[in-house]
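BUG-359 | component: ligand-complex export | severity: low

The export step for zinc ion jobs runs without errors, but we want the raw record kept on the ticket for reference. Input record follows.
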Amino acid sequence: MSRDRENTPPRPPEPTASGPTDEYLLWVAEARTESAAGDRAFTRLVELYRSRVVSLVAAHLGDADQAEDVAQEVFLKARAALPSVREEARFESWLLRIAYRTAIDHTRGFWWRRRVSLERLAESARETALAGAAVAGAGNDPESTLLRSERSSQVRKALREVPEAFRAPVVLRDIAGLSYEEIGRILNCPLGTVESRIHRGRQALRRKLEKLLP
Amino acid sequence: MNSEMRCQDVRSRLSGYHDSALPPPLAGSIRLHLDKCPDCAGELAAISRVAGLVSGSMLDARPGFEERFARKLTARRAAGESWAARARLAKRLSAYAAAFLLAALVGLGPAVVRDVRDYVAPSSDAQILYLALIENGSGDQEDSH
Ligand SMILES: [Zn+2]
């Protein structure tokens, strides 16, 4: 398993509980155009959502490094399809749905899509070494950073062992941060089912995590 | 109406309660129960811990994620015909998307099926579907067709 990247960078304005901000909607509108400006606007959306997409994918794959490649694939698909999508306000759940489905496909044995390039492995190893050096050199509580990283990878391991029907709604809720309504639309099931699956998923995780993280 | 709830009924709704996803009257009844029942309150704390561990397992992408994305995007476009032209074509041909899909499923095999599935189930929007197809069919340098 890989090291974690815990330090989330400052984020551009996100949709809030009261709805998407105007600035955000402008980005989405701009990103729908087939132009260089559209590409730039889309790149800002990539910046905004990369953490959630990578984390969502990693939670299904159990592997943070592979998740990075799959996340790139997600954004490429989204960029290609976005100009024909209406409903800009629902960009977020649309994107996360693509992420969810792409991640699930990668967990279902489409093994020929799983390419681990040597370049990636080398790059990954180098970064791990650098991260280790940074942790050792920095005075900012390296032990808790390592513990947190270890805990996160235990959580991903446990998630991977939970059946997909229960893992998916938990991840869409606790990592993607979607509402039960949005989860219901993505998983194509009623609210009551979303609720009970989230609950059973968390109960299953709890049993696994009690062994791993007593 | 009786607002006293049994432990069993409370426990099955604790995730919904934790996520503020329950109708207010039900949430109110559960809150009353939790005030009086340490066992169920303990269950809620356990659910809450699990949810916190999952959301605490968030990652950020490696540095340079957007740059790598921009390079891939450029490579894909350069590899195919102009992206804008493809999108226009897609619009014009969207009426034939269903027929094209059928042909693609039969003719091009599982690699296409895989990408198509992403779009069929969630949206059934013929245009998205068609775009997904042509996106897959050209310029994905990582695939061998
Ligand atoms: Zn009770």
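Assignee comment: Attached the raw record above. The first helix of chain B runs from residue 7 to 11.
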